[in-house]
Amino acid sequence: LQFQTINALDKRRLRKNHLVQRGKYVYKLDSTMEDQNVSEIHLPVSTKRPPMGIVFPKHCIPHRKTAIVIPYRNRLDHLMLFVRHMHSILQRQEIEYGIYVINLAGDALFNRAKLLNIGFKEVMKHFPGYDCIIFHDVDLLPEDDRNLYTCSSEPKHMSAAINIFHYKIPYQQIFGGVTAMTPEQFRLVNGYSNEYWGWGGEDDDMFRRIFRMCMSVYRISSNVARYHMAKHTHDKGNEVLPERFNILKGADNRQSWDGLSSLEYQVLNRQYNFLYNNITVLIGSPN
Ligand code: UD2
Ligand code: MN
């Protein structure tokens, strides 16, 4: 079908930037031309099979490509629950996706933020076509299919309503749990700070980075943004970081040089698989 054959009724059904597929062509309504024209766009969709470790819908051509990055060490029970739960939801949402476990080797201090920075670099290397990166605690399970695993024009805090907080947001500046950022948004803030060793602070630091770059945080309705957190205690090697409030005071000053731009790590192993991709890393220890 050529674009001329998309009739007025079809045009009315199209929203701005909405993609339509007709046979092997994908069209979008050009927002500058309003409803005068429907232009063919360069296919964001590829007929090439994505690499091993990425799952894609078979009955339609996906245009949303999401990587889920999980900071991880020694939580196998949670990870098994997570993959069992997530695949069916993501497939019902018709997203092309890969799940990446960034597995910290050894017994050094845990550093969630640094593992997330590594995750970002590694997923973009594996598949540069991702348009959304979701940073995901392994112990959180979404409860509602309408909570789409996609990005927004502002960084998105997805886990606004968690059972352990009685499904209410504990404080407005929270940016932990599950968050979604486009590669552009994440690069703009220079990723996470690498300076938070142990539990706490790294999520609040990211909240500041976002606002410092004149962005804001988007949340969907708490009826939909519902999560269940598996029960757990504090892990060994991830003790509460008492200096986190002091480190947080210097957040703005560190942003330009502490983050993606200063990230150093070592990869011990990369395994790409449909259930999940495992990247085992060493991250060093605090200076
Ligand atoms: C909160 C935040 C979390 C993070 C953390 C402070 C929410 C809902 N969650 O979680 O995003 O900001 O505080 O750092 O706001 N992990 C392991 N192995 C370990 C330790 C941690 O896999 O030994 C991973 C795992 O994915 C876990 C995550 O790190 O879910 C966060 O650690 P947590 O679950 O102990 O912290 P929690 O629930 O207080
Ligand atoms: Mn937790």
From TrEMBL:
<comment type="similarity">
    <text>Belongs to the glycosyltransferase 7 family.</text>
</comment>
<keyword id="KW-0472">Membrane</keyword>
<keyword id="KW-0328">Glycosyltransferase</keyword>
<comment type="pathway">
    <text>Protein modification; protein glycosylation.</text>
</comment>
<keyword id="KW-0325">Glycoprotein</keyword>
<feature type="domain" description="Galactosyltransferase N-terminal">
    <location>
        <begin position="50"/>
        <end position="152"/>
    </location>
</feature>
<protein>
    <recommendedName>
        <fullName>Beta-1,4-N-acetylgalactosaminyltransferase bre-4</fullName>
    </recommendedName>
</protein>
<keyword id="KW-1133">Transmembrane helix</keyword>
<keyword id="KW-0812">Transmembrane</keyword>
<keyword id="KW-0808">Transferase</keyword>
<keyword id="KW-0735">Signal-anchor</keyword>
<feature type="domain" description="Galactosyltransferase C-terminal">
    <location>
        <begin position="156"/>
        <end position="233"/>
    </location>
</feature>
